[in-house]
Write a structure and sequence with these properties.
460 residues, mainly beta, 6-stranded mixed sheet, 5-stranded mixed sheet, 10% helix, elongated, Coronin, WD repeat, actin filament binding, WD40_rpt, actin-binding
């Protein structure tokens, strides 16, 4: 029986690690046991949570600060206990949020030049009083400005309005520790996984549970991500026998559409979903590989593409927003792989193409750094889709093809010339042509007379 390979423009995507002189080293990564990627990246900066004593801190590096770090390099050190998660504001590349074991969430402003040797201890905003236990995850709203979600071991989820520094929504529907939280595309819903092995879809403003279902059967942490373009939830967890597996769920009903086993490793898998390419990247803490899959609307809904392998297990992984990727080399994703020994390695995922033109099919319009709603608009119940921008480089041709010559009868603006103008032009051209023919006839007659005179002269 013939076997067919599924057609996909991402079937040959491959990962390439940066050379050593383009990596970051010389720092101590946090050793806290909480399930966190310990890093975050945007087009300007890379943030890494540090191992520290006497208070929590994280490092902020510009992308050009590669190589071994200066021991006296500046850092953000305003928390009293270990920092557990950091997240860059999607609408302001200089703003970052952090959460900590000290039950607080803080917002920081990083200057364009970075921190140099400055130790930043004064935040823009300090959010306190709502959480009674450590805060392990923070997420910025995907479309509304100055809206931040924090999840704690209370277990409570709080949604903050940063313009007033107030907790506007408090979601208290989980009986045990919350493992992960994910926004949908327009920020109206959140999906969560919990230690009680349930997956929930929750109205983000009202806090009520819309759907609830049994998740993965294993006791280890499971994680979830909204894949709104297909109406899916993608989860990664464990079976009863501690086999790692992923599952796909229908958002409308929480019906399980697919369940596949991955391997026998005990590392928790972190999910990164790319809404532009519809690809899923899975990286486990302690793994030395990153798997990538492509989602599809039809069964089996998820197709394995390939793996990126290295010799060093990762401590955490963070992904560059698509607007920070290099489209000139067809870089469809870029991650920063953090290892425990204090080394961070950028990895580029590219699709080989012979053409050097901008690849429209690989890079559709992506999420902009401009918000669609204000905080007040969102809390008042308004929804909006994310704003999109083109990734086409400046100066690149509009279509990537040679410009076509204007058709006859078109002006420089591309509009048809009026019929009267065309008729007048035709009459003028005809008159010029008749006059030219008359002149040519006269020239021929003159030449014939001259030739005849020369012939008569020669004969005599």
């Amino acid at each position: 029986m013939a076997k067919f390979v599924r057609s996909s423009k991402f079937r040959h995507v491959f990962g390439t690690a940066a050379k050593k002189d383009q990596c970051y080293e010389g720092f101590s990564v946090s050793g806290n046991a909480v399930e966190s990627p310990y890093c975050a990246v945007n087009p300007k900066f890379l943030a890494i949570i540090l191992k520290s004593s006497g208070g929590g801190a994280f490092l902020v590096l510009r992308h050009d600060e590669v190589g071994r770090m200066d021991p006296e390099h500046g850092r953000v050190g305003g928390h009293k206990q270990d920092v557990l998660d950091v997240a860059w504001n999607p609408f302001d590349d200089n703003m970052i949020a952090s959460c900590s074991e000290d039950a607080t969430v803080k917002i920081w402003h990083i200057p364009d030049q970075g921190l140099d040797k400055e130790i930043l201890t004064t935040p823009l905003i300090s959010l306190e009083g709502q959480h009674q236990k450590k805060v392990q995850q923070i997420l910025w709203h995907p479309v509304a400005a100055n809206v931040l979600l924090s999840a704690s071991w209370d277990p409570v989820i709080v949604i903050w309005n940063l313009e007033t520094a107030e907790a506007v929504v408090e979601i208290d529907c989980h009986p045990d520790i919350i493992f992960s939280v994910s926004w949908n595309a327009n920020g109206s819903l959140i999906a969560t996984t919990c230690k009680d092995k349930k997956i929930r879809i929750i109205d983000a403003r009202k806090g009520n549970v819309i759907h609830e279902a049994d998740g993965h059967e294993g006791a280890k942490p499971q994680r979830v991500a909204f894949c709104s373009e297909f109406g899916y939830l993608f989860s990664a967890g464990f079976s009863k026998m501690s086999t790692r597996q992923y599952a796909i769920w229908n958002v409308e009903t929480l019906e399980q559409l697919a369940l596949e086993e991955i391997d026998q490793s005990n590392a928790v898998l972190f999910i990164h979903y790319d809404p532009d390419t519809k690809m899923i990247y899975l990286a486990g803490k302690g793994d030395s590989i990153i798997r990538y899959y492509e989602l599809a609307p039809e069964s089996p809904h998820c197709h394995w593409l390939t793996n990126y392998s290295s010799n060093v297990p990762q401590r955490g992984v963070c992904y560059m927003p698509k607007r920070g990727c290099n489209v000139k080399i067809n870089e469809v994703a870029k991650c920063f792989k953090l290892v425990a020994k204090g080394y961070c390695e950028p990895v580029s995922f590219t699709v080989p193409r012979k053409s050097e033109l901008f690849q429209e099919d690989l890079f559709p319009p992506t999420q902009s750094d401009e918000h669609s709603l204000t905080a007040d608009e969102w809390f008042d119940g308004k929804d909006a889709d994310p704003k999109k921008i083109s990734l086409r480089p400046e100066g690149d041709a509009a279509t990537g093809k040679a410009a076509k010559k204007p058709k006859k009868g078109l002006t420089a603006l591309g509009k048809k010339a009026p019929k009267k103008e065309l008729a007048a032009k035709a009459e003028e051209d005809e008159s010029e042509l008749i006059e030219m023919v008359k002149q040519l006839k006269l020239q021929v007659e003159a030449q014939e007379k001259r030739i005849k005179a020369l012939e008569e002269k020669l004969e005599s």
